[in-house]
Amino acid sequence: MHIGIDVGGTNTDAVLMEGTRAIEGVKHSTTPDVTSGIVQAIEDLRARHPFQDTQIDAVMIGTTHFINALVQANRLAPTAALRLGLPATKALPPLVDWPEALSSAIQGRSYLAHGGYEFDGRPISPLDPEELRKHAADMKSNGIRSVAVSSVFSPVNHDLEVETGRILADELGPEVAISLSHEIGRIGLLERENATIINAALRELASEIVDGLTAAVRAEGISAPIFLSQNDGTLMDEDYVRLYPVATFASGPTNSMRGAAVTSGLATCAVVDIGGTTTDIGLLINGFPRETANEVKVAGIRTNFRMPDVLSIGIGGGSIVDPVSGEVGPESVGYRLTTEALVFGGSTLTATDIAVAAGRADIGDPSKVAHLDPDFIRRVLDRIAERISEAVDRMRTSPDPIPVVAVGGGSVLLPDRLPLFGTVHRPENYAVANAIGASIAQVGGEIDKVFAVEPGHREETLAQVRAEASDKAVAAGAKPSTVMIVDFDEVPLPYLPGNATRIRVKAVGDLDMGA
Amino acid sequence: MAWTMTAGDVENVARGAAVLGTGGGGDPYIGALLATRALQEHGEIPVVTLEELPEDALVLTVAMMGAPTVMVEKLPSLEEVIAPVRELGAYLSRPVTHIACAEIGGVNSTIPVAAAAALGLPLLDADGMGRAFPELQMVLPTLYGVTASPLAFGDEKGNVGVLQTVDNSWTERIARVACVEMGCSVMISGFRMTGSQARESLVEGSLSRCIAIGKEIVRARAAKSDPVAAAVELLGGRELFAGKVADVQRATTRGFARGQARIDGQDAVLMLSFQNEHLVAESDGRILATTPDLIIVLEHETGEPITTEGLRYGQRVRVVAAPSDERWHTSAALAMVGPGYFGYDHPSYRFDGSVEDLAEAIA
Question: Is A97 in Cβ contact with B30 (below 8 Å)?
Fold first, then answer.
């Protein structure tokens, strides 16, 4: 058995799982200290379905802590960004396009140094250790506690980043964390560097959170290993989280999507998650979320780490409905739904009121919406269905049919059949879908690099990259016999000589729980 | 009249250039950021009209040559743009007086802004195309006997070269080799012009036009009126089609991103063919517009321009055609940038759907 826990901003959910079957699920309010919420959730699970501590093979946790810390500019470490690339890149130094509030929240300092590579791996200029030591001394005197190192074309060759990390560690000592850009992002220097700086700023918090989560689970007497979910839905162990907290950023929507898919028995589907204010739509392909191809802005910062591609539209249970035009949202009463909606005695017409009036939901006092015109109600619901189905259509990449799974408290707004897509699937256990999503025990390894593919050696290169990704998955804890390549992408880079090709391979396997 | 460009104008320049760039030019992010930073650091720049240009002016175009993928990784230092311009001035034994854009579209409309700021030189409110095209020689000055050579190129390390070649294709061949050696992202400067050559061969008012279009789209959006209609009005063009992107096929051949996009409308289908830029729009076997007139794809509601790389299944778009500069419609110009040059065996169609009469074009 294993336990899946999802710590959201509002609720902490926990499930007890046997393989892919949920035995028991509980829901709790998230506590300010986080750990007591987790302790409570595990105790509740145990009360409903007693288990021995030794029966638990693993605990998987999904958390929105890190992205919240960034969005709220809260508890971020004083961070330096050092880039190797001089004499190139001078016109746009690190932190160049950051929102002022965030760069001051991390007390950001930016440094340029010699080094970096050309597209084909030739050095731009040699590393200058003396220059790096001078920068390190300046960091030290300014109280920097975490450093992000980036280098031009480090996805082609990362030797200089590694070497620089070593020199900085010697100067700054073990208490200063160092994050290297080639381990975090992909081609696109500014975006990769930004993701690395965010990661660096979260390193101290990551250690605190991991210590807290571990303490909470251990306090319950469970000694099984603890994993956290990553953006793509695979798991990482606690040591990895301490190094790469940024990899948890989008685990919330990912876990919700994967949970919805597992509980409805589908691996490829569109998941429509209708909350209080927005409807979030994502695509699952073979159980993994489709990821964005482009840059994504996180808290106003342009990054390019892999995030599930989620389209949000302003329709939710709390959306305000115009009593004349029948248009829905994007304004919402949000958490004030239980005081402001008509069915709760308030004075604002919301989407929830429409759902109650149509008999699709049974909450509040239905007599308070009995006066609504049935034609108006139908018009509003038809419009919601049309807009959501248009948004799902935008998300799919081809006109091929794809099943739609609806989850979230606001999913009562959707009819049983959707224009273009037919039957809407509604999984039963979705109240704890995020926790179920977190508990899916898979680990992965990914390689995303630029290779110079020599003529006649394409197959050889590809085989080598596949093997590297599989090894990485095994190193992350996958059972070797279960490792599969789930994603493969090969893109020749235009205008470049020497068959420069970007190859991306993702291997995934089942977590080895030693059973 | 001369005016001043500030960092606040860059966003509108970039948006307007993405419209006039007819789908080419790539992601404008780095170029716009570069121009914004340069104007903040070096101060605003004077922008001079062609009319005001003195006869003894020495005008040079500035552009980036190489792979866009490299530019997002090996970011510019801006020194690589200063050295070639100075070197070309030295080669010509005369100081360079003005900078111009070779084309309007993507990074090559914002890099000259950054270059003018870094060099402390005025920028011309004009460009060599009034749109974007994929090849070096595809500028109006070519039709007036202005050559790319002597052409200077430079990298961030300080390496500079000046090429004196026998024709534009040699310029392209030799510069391309040097470009790869220098790391596949260099700045080039050439097409030197006097005041009267610039007046004769450049497209007047390009930057003002970019800013006007960029502003108008934002204004119409804020006023909840139709930004696409507002853009069409400013461009003096017509809306060809509205629909959903149903299929996009691309292939990279000989360094160019070629492809086709199918757009499904209410009861018709539009096919767009592109090579970096949109070249031909046809519907049900009928050609609606071709190069050298402008074919522009805008997002259905926001009017935000969509590049050929950014086209994706499911987008709701509107396709607009607009007239290009009249000098693109002579037979010599059509031979250089018309459908025939890009491998299509039909004549060129104007933005309004009329067939271009070559006999008339010669006259």
Answer: no
The CATH code belonging to domain A79-202 is: 3.40.50
Assigned CATH class of A265-430: alpha beta
Note the pLDDT tens digit of each residue in A419-473. 788 889 988 766 788 888 888 878 888 888 778 777 778 888 889 999 999 998 9
Let me know if residue B213 belongs to a domain.
Answer: no
Cβ distance of A88 and B315 shorter than 8 Å = no
- Which pLDDT tens digit goes with each residue over A255-268? 888 888 888 888 89
As a 3-state breakdown, chain A gives helix, strand, coil percent values, each rounded to 5, of: 40, 30, 35
Please count the CA atoms within 13 angstroms of the CA of B319 that sit on its side-chain side: 34
Task: Give CB contacts under 8 A, 24+ apart, made by A121-126.
Answer: A121/A153, A121/A156, A121/A157, A121/A452, A122/B183, A123/A160, A124/A85, A124/A86, A124/A87, A124/A88, A124/A152, A124/B74, A124/B156, A124/B157, A124/B183, A125/A86, A125/A87, A125/B157
* Statement to judge: residues B119 and B190 lie in one domain: yes
| Contact call for residues A506 and A233 (beta carbons, < 8 A) | no
Nearest chain A residue to B115, by CA: A91
Tokens of B169: 């294709």
Looking up tokens 């036009």, which residue turns up?
B209
Domain CATH number, residue B35: 3.40.1610.10
- Judgement on whether residues B173 and B101 belong to the same structural domain of the protein: yes
Q: What is the CATH number of the domain that holds B261?
A: 2.40.390.10
ipTM: 0.88
pTM of the model as a whole: 0.88
Pairing of strands A2-7, A404-407: unpaired
- Could you list the residue range(s) of the whole structural domain that residue B255 is in? 226-362
Candidates A84, A92, A160, A388, partner chain B, best to mutate (most B CBs within 10 A): A92
Least Cα separation, residue B256 to chain A (angstroms) = 7
Torsion of CA A434, A438, A442, A443, to 10 degrees: 120
User: What stretch(es) of chain A map to CATH 3.40.50?
Assistant: 79-202
Q: Name the closest residue on chain B to residue A393, using Cα atoms.
A: B314
Q: How far is CA A265 from CA A84, A259, A261, A287, A452, in A?
A: 48, 10, 6, 10, 42
> Which tokens hold the place of A512?
């080895």
